[in-house]
Design a protein that fits this description.
Helices cover about 15% and strands about 25% of the residues. With about 270 residues, the chain is of the alpha+beta class. The protein is globular and about 50 Å long.
Length: about 270
């Protein structure tokens, strides 16, 4: 499976509804958690919950079938103990399943007015989306960002394309991969997503994470505090054998365009 597609499908399965049947009412998602579960609050991250409850983060992720970068959302139920028989069952399973599915937005029923026909003297205008201005989102994040490697941009971010949930930067195998901002390493090693290779995830704040894929070798372990520009790994290659780094920035678990945070390339 294509790397960004696998990661995108994982996030989409947790954050998007799958139909009108079986959806939990909105108020139920914020009700007290049943015994053995924890109700996620706004601003929570999996690593903080694991530390607060004195549970290993990988163990907590496994109990809840979460894979890197462990996206969670307010109102979600997390299992806080090993599921009986290795899996959730009964009412608890139904509660957890319902909590993972946000309420479906109301359907739009208002009809759009018919478009005016174009005339020869006034051709119809085509809407265009302006290109993102490099670094325009950095100040709002409260972080100072830097490029993890220098190189030619091979792939841009596309918000509605699950195969393009990050950017890809060309670099020779063995090139140092640097932390894009200060933070703490919360994942380091082989990922559970096919084709992702050696993966590093750095938590920069309660809202922001960055992910670095296709590494040949990782040089930091989980729990390590890193500074912007500090080496994390060495560039490897994609499943197709092309030397590159796959890089993502996530805000509240959802991908955002890294070019909005990285400074303009010099």
């Amino acid at each position: 499976m294509h790397v960004p597609l696998a990661l995108g499908v994982l996030v989409a399965s947790l954050l998007a509804g799958c139909g009108s049947k079986g959806l939990a009412p909105v108020d139920e998602r914020y009700a007290p958690a049943p015994p053995g579960f924890y109700r996620v609050r706004a601003g929570d991250t999996l690593s903080e919950i694991a530390e607060r409850e004195r549970i290993g983060m990988r163990k907590l992720a496994a109990w809840n079938e979460l894979a890197p970068p462990y996206p969670i959302y307010a109102g979600q139920l997390l299992r806080m103990q090993a599921p009986p028989g290795g899996g959730a069952s009964g009412d608890d399973a139904r509660r957890a399943s319902a909590a993972r599915t946000p309420a479906e937005p109301a359907a739009k029923t208002a009809a759009k007015p018919p478009a005016q026909p174009a005339t020869a003297s006034k051709p119809a205008k085509t809407a265009t989306t302006p290109a993102p201005r490099p670094g325009s989102g950095a100040s709002a994040s409260g972080l100072t960002w830097a490029w993890p490697v220098s190189g030619r941009l091979l792939q841009r971010y596309q918000p509605n394309d699950r195969t393009r949930q990050g950017i890809r930067i060309a670099a020779e195998v063995g090139t140092p991969v640097a932390a894009a901002a200060d933070g703490e390493v919360v994942y380091s090693g082989r990922s559970g997503l096919a084709g992702y290779g050696n993966l590093i995830i750095v938590k920069h704040s309660p809202r922001y994470l960055s992910a670095y894929g296709f590494n040949r070798r990782v040089l930091v372990s989980e729990g390590t505090r890193v500074k912007r520009g500090q080496q994390l790994a060495e560039v490897g290659q994609s499943a197709a054998g092309q030397p590159m780094l796959h890089f993502e920035i996530r805000r509240d678990g959802a991908t955002v365009d890294p070019l909005l945070f990285l400074p303009a390339a010099g």
